[in-house]
Amino acid sequence: MTFQKTKFERLELKQKHKKCSLVLREIYEKLLVKDVDIASLHETYLTYCKWMHLDEFTKVHDLKLLSDRYHWHLTQAHIQLKEHNLLPHIRKGDHVPKTDFSNIAIYLDNVRSAYNVGSILRTTEALRIGSLYFAEKTPFTDNSKVQKTSMGSSEIVPCFQNVSLENLPRPFIALETSEDAENVTDFIFPKEFTLILGNEEFGISDKMLSMVDYLVEIPLFGKKNSINIACAYSIAANEIRRQHALRFL
């Protein structure tokens, strides 16, 4: 037994839940790699539950229920959930890139949220969709929130500041909600171009709109007129990568 009863009962309630979560996590990881030798771990967990007067958890081979139970213990232990909380030891590290970055420029026209910028960086790196160009008021890669949200992508994606628009490839294609915009899945993206993303609240600036060659939009079916810029970019970037894979790779 990992803990004697007297020692376990001296723990604070949060610590008891944390101990339970650690056992469930070990069971989960064993099941993921097809290691079915979990009897002793399950017995330990059931003992902890008995000491805490919790209901027995017998469906230990059901990964969905196991995950739910694990996260319940984390909540009771006041442990903040992290991305991929159950998988840190299962992941084998980052991938070897399958392709180089495309010759596409993504221009951030005064995108203000560092978290959106970080998310855009992650999508750009994951899809190898191009290089990022930052307007003056857009948080750059030296911003700590951008770095944290980008999960290291800020060090991989080619990023530039203070670049004249005249030096970016034509055509200029703006991702914007408009009656004149074409559905992003119907538009045929060229091999090289500049994709323009606008401010979260006001969209693309009038000055930039006067320069664009095409407008594309994400088709929406709900009441709201728009979605988060980082989410919209992810959808558009995936469509661009899909088209390029069919036509240029």
Structural overview:
Strand 2 (131-134), helix 6 (144-150) and strand 3 (159-161) form a beta-alpha-beta unit. This protein has helices spanning 5-9, 13-32, 39-51, 63-76, 114-127, 144-150, 206-209, 229-247, and strands at 104-108, 131-134, 159-161, 172-175, 182-183, 193-197, 214-217. 39% of the residues lie in helices and 11% in strands. Helix 2 runs antiparallel to helix 4 (63-76). By secondary structure, the protein is of the alpha/beta class. Strands 3-2-1-6-4-7-5 form a seven-stranded parallel β-sheet. It is built from eight helices and seven strands. The chain has two domains: 5-76, no CATH class; 104-247, SPOUT methyltransferase, trefoil knot domain (Alpha/beta knot, 3-Layer(aba) Sandwich), CATH 3.40.1280.
Helix proportion range? 25-40%
Number of contiguous helices: 8
CATH architecture of the largest domain: 3-Layer(aba) Sandwich
Number of distinct beta strands: 7
What is the rounded distance between the termini? 57 Å
Q: Which band does the percent of strand residues land in? A: 5-15%
* Structural class assignment: alpha/beta
CATH class of the largest domain: Alpha Beta
Mean pLDDT value: 89
CATH homologous superfamily designation of the largest domain? SPOUT methyltransferase, trefoil knot domain
Task: Please indicate the count of domains.
Answer: 2
Output the helix-strand order: HHHHEHEHEEEEHEH
Give the structure's gist in a few sentences.
Helix content is 39%, strand content 11%.
